[in-house]
Structure formats: C-alpha cells, structure tokens
C-alpha cells in the first residue's frame, strides 16, 4: 500500500497524509467516509456564485483546509509547549469534521428547518451506526466523546479548543483565504504564515495568544475579515439570492404543513427536513444541495405561483432588486417605509409576505470581551516583558473594527420595484 497520500489544494498547496502514522491514517480514512464525501455536494458560500462566478467551492475543500491549518498551528506551538498526543488527535479530528452537520445551502436551510448544524455534527460523531463514529472508536474508544467535548470546550477552554473555535481559529483562517481566492475578490488576503509564526501558548491560562511581533499580522487578518463581510458575504446580490432561497423553502414548508405541497412525498428527505424531523446519519448523508436544487427545478412548474416564481428566479438568476436603506437609522422612520412598501405591493396585486423582504445583516469583525469560557474571547498579545495585553489596548484599529458592520436593505420582486420606490418617495 502507498505510504503517503497527497491532496493538492489551491490555498495550502500540498496536504499530505503519511499512512504509516496512525493519526494520519485515521484522518485519511475519515475523509473517505460517505459522511465526509457528502461535503463535496454542499457549497461553501451557498448562492454567492450568482455574484462571484468562481465561488462554487465546497465545504469539503474548506474542511480539509481547516484541518491543514490546525496542523500548522500545532506545529508552531510545539516550540513553546508540549503537545499532548490525545488532545492533538481530538483537535485535528474536530477541525476536519466541524462542518459535517451543515445542510443544503448551509445556514439558510438551517433557519427554515430548525436543524442545527452543530447538533447534527455531534449526532454524526456519536451515532454508532455511522462510519465516522466507528473509525473514531477503532482508533480510541474514548475519541468520539473527546472530540465532542473539545467542540463544546469541556471541561474548560484550552488552546486546543481555541484552535477549533475562537477569534484566531483554524476555521476563520482558512475560509477567509479560500473565499477570497475563489471569489477573486482580493479583499480577504492576509499573511497567514507570519500570523502562524507569531502564535504562542500562555502558560497560566493555557490559551492561545499572539507574540508582540504579530500585532500587524492580526490587524491585517481582522481587516480582511471586515472587507470580506462587507464586500462578499453581505454583497447585495448574495443576500438577495439567500433571501429568495429562504422564502422558497418557507413557502414549501407552509404548503407541506397544509398538505398542499405537490412534490416531494411525505417520506422524502427534503420534505421531512423542512418540517424539522430528525434524520439518522444515513438519511442525512443523502441530503445535500442537489436534493434541494432538484426540488427547485420541479417547483418552478408548481401550481402555487409564489413558489414557482421564486424557484424560477433562483434557477434563471432573476433576483429581487435591492433598495438601500442603510442611511436610515431611525426605527420609526424605517418602519414607516417598510409599511408603505408592503402596502404598495398589496395594492398592485402582489403578496407582501413573499414579494419583498427586509434584510439587516450585521457582523462585528473584532470582539472585545474576555472570559475563560467564551468562544469570542478578546485576542491577547504577549508583550516583550511577557505580560498579556488585550489587542484592543494596543491597536488603534480595534475601535473601528469592533463597531457593528450593518446594512439595511429592502429586496423587492422586480415587477414591483418601481411602485415601491414611488410609494417611498
């Protein structure tokens, strides 16, 4: 048997697995399970390819990248602290498997169905019938529980859990670079190698910190996060398409509850998932973007005109038009505008519940709270004297970066855009 397997990756180049090593062999076997291969059929950025044509990469490639980034972080930290082999195994397995529970179109489907991707991931890891669980137990009978505990930062947060979930975690490092590359946006670049080189472990707290020389790298990383949210994740076309997906799924769910959904049958995975019914690992493995896109192709000819119109718009990129309301901060003024828009659509024969939606995405690029058990800990910097200082006390950028990034937009079905604008005037 070949002693090494190589995966070429656009972000990290060579991702190697030396199969004579038990941990690396386990990771490679996990990659080849049906549960993990399913992630090839879940797009990382949902509908973002309607704005950025290259953004068709999957959660499969991202998950590989997160694991590889975690490897690089652990290799750096070995210079400062002993790396426990059992904790290392749980950390690398956790970073590889962290996205297993994502449903079709990721967060959009999750909001409609109520199926939490975090809980679904844990279910897959803990289910004795699943191949992922079986491989973990074959390696170490305690490993499934150790991975789940690490994901939940139990019994306490350590630098291993920081690598898995935190402001300087392997997940954020990879998705910013990967999404930046695949969209071609050039907004999310930062110096990963220098930032990794600056990571240290703080002995008293056993948490991840940054050496003094890494302050500039942290600033660049946080700025890239800000720009990616502003220009990619919150792009008006991306948000319009995601909103239409949500409306289509909500409409299908309502029809299903009323027993008026013509297709699929009640036993179908999409039907059951829409209603929030629990799926076992085998069933969930069959649920992916293709499942829902197939429904869209059938629903575009539905006798329900609302569902049909939304699906045709998504399939043929006839998206809702965007009216920017971000400058309007007064809640009463905003409410008045939204009511006028809804009344105008109703007056002209539309359905205000489906022909428009208000969207207010928000993000804080840098969080400034610190606690021993919080996933959003403030980034700590170790100064030349060895003292830990919050990043916010050092960088002049922190005040700007911890302000809420907010957009307020009204998305309107194209036939009603002009009547809504007239009503708003």
Explained architecture:
Residues about 370-375 have low confidence and may be disordered. The strands form 4 sheets. The chain has a 4-stranded mixed beta sheet. It has a 3-stranded antiparallel beta sheet with strand order 5-11-6, sandwiched between helices. The chain has a two-stranded antiparallel sheet with strand order 1-2. It is built from 20 helices and 11 strands. With about 425 residues, the protein is an alpha+beta fold. The protein has a domain at about 5-235: Orthogonal Bundle (Hypothetical protein af1432). The N and C termini lie far apart (about 70 Å).
How would you describe the shape? globular
State the low-pLDDT regions, or none: 370-376
Describe the oligomeric state of these chains in a short phrase. Answer: single chain
How would you state the average pLDDT, rounded? 94
Radius of gyration, CA atoms, in whole angstroms: 23 Å
CATH topology of the domain at 4-233: Hypothetical protein af1432
